[in-house]
Design brief:
Elements lengths: L6 E5 L4 H12 L3 E6 L3 H13 L4 E5 L5 H14 L5 E4 L15 H29 L3 E6 L12 H21 L4 E8 L2 E2 L4 H5 L1 H8 L8 E2 H12 L10 E4 L3 H6 L3
Parallel strand pairs: 1-2, 1-4, 2-3, 4-5, 5-6, 6-9, 7-8
Helix pairs in contact: 1-2, 1-8, 3-4, 4-5
C-alpha cells in the first residue's frame, strides 16, 4: 500500500459498523476520514480511536443523500489527508417498518436516499478521483442479507439494499480495468445501535439468536475485519461480489424456516 492509497473515507463512521471499520482501517495503517451526519461527539470518539492507532483522522459532516454536501466533503478530505484509496459506504438507515400501503413518499425517499443514493454519490466522486490519480482503489459497500431476503415492513430497506447489490456489481464491471475493486458486505444480525432492542432486551436477543446456526449475533468488529481484508492487496482478485457475514442465518431463511 503506497502513501497515496493509505487514506480511507468511511461514511456513517460515528457509530456501529462504520466506526468499527474506521478503527480497524487505522490499525491496518490508514489515515481515516470519519464522515458523520449529526453526532459530532460520537464522530470525535471515532477519530480518537484512529489517532490512538498512530494515524491521522478528521471528521467531516454531510448528508450522503445531498450531492453538494458529498462533493464538499470529498474536497475537505482531499485537502486534509489526500485522495482516498479506500471508500467504505456504511451510512444508512434501518427499515421504516411501514407496509407499502401506508408508506409515504417521504419515508420511501428518505431511506433510498441514505442507503442507495448516498453510496452512488460517494462512489462516483471516489472513482473520479482514483481515475485522475491513476492508481488502484477499493470500494466496500455495507449491504445486508435483506438485499436478497425480503421482510414485511421493509420495502424501503430491502429495495435499497437490493439496489446497492446491483450498483456494486455494475461499478465492479466498469472499474475493473482501472484497478478499482468494488465489493459489498452483507451482515446479518450484528450488535450495533441499529439493533438497540436486541442489545437492551436479553430475552428478545435470545429469541433472535436461536434462529442463527452459530447461536449468537455478530459484532461490528467482525464486519470491520472483513472490510480490512477486502481493502487489502490480498483481495485484489475479488470484485463484484457480496460477502455474507451472518452466522449462517441466510441459509435458514432460504429454507423458509
Amino acid at each position: 500500500m503506497s502513501e497515496s492509497q493509505a487514506v480511507a473515507f468511511v461514511t456513517g463512521a460515528e457509530s456501529g459498523i462504520g466506526a468499527a471499520c474506521a478503527g480497524a482501517l487505522a490499525a491496518a495503517g490508514y489515515d481515516v476520514a470519519v464522515l458523520y451526519f449529526h453526532d459530532i461527539d460520537a464522530a470525535n470518539k471515532t477519530v480518537a480511536v484512529v489517532t490512538a492507532a498512530g494515524r491521522r483522522g478528521i471528521t467531516v459532516q454531510a448528508d450522503v443523500a445531498d450531492e453538494a454536501a458529498v462533493e464538499a466533503a470529498f474536497d475537505t478530505v482531499i485537502a486534509a489527508l489526500g485522495v482516498p484509496g479506500v471508500l467504505v459506504n456504511s451510512a444508512g438507515l434501518n427499515q421504516s417498518g411501514v407496509p407499502v400501503a401506508d408508506m409515504t413518499l417521504v419515508q420511501w425517499q428518505r431511506l433510498i436516499g441514505s442507503d442507495l443514493t448516498g453510496p452512488f454519490l460517494t462512489s462516483r466522486r471516489f472513482v473520479q478521483e482514483r481515475l485522475k490519480a491513476g492508481g488502484p482503489g477499493q470500494i466496500i459497500n455495507i449491504s445486508s442479507i435483506h438485499a436478497e431476503d425480503a421482510r414485511a415492513g421493509g420495502a424501503d430497506y430491502c429495495s435499497a439494499k437490493g439496489g446497492l447489490k446491483m450498483l456494486t456489481e455494475t461499478m465492479a464491471l466498469e472499474c475493473a480495468g482501472a484497478g478499482i475493486t468494488v465489493n459489498a458486505i452483507a451482515p446479518g444480525m450484528i450488535l450495533t445501535p441499529m439493533n438497540a432492542k436486541a442489545q437492551a432486551d436479553a430475552t428478545y436477543r435470545s429469541s433472535l439468536e436461536a434462529a442463527i446456526p452459530v447461536k449468537r449475533a455478530g459484532t461490528a468488529e467482525e464486519v470491520a475485519a472483513l472490510a480490512v481484508y477486502l481493502a487489502s492487496p490480498a483481495a485484489a482478485y475479488i470484485t463484484g461480489t457480496t460477502v455474507t457475514i451472518d452466522g449462517g442465518l441466510s441459509l435458514v431463511l432460504a429454507q423458509g424456516a
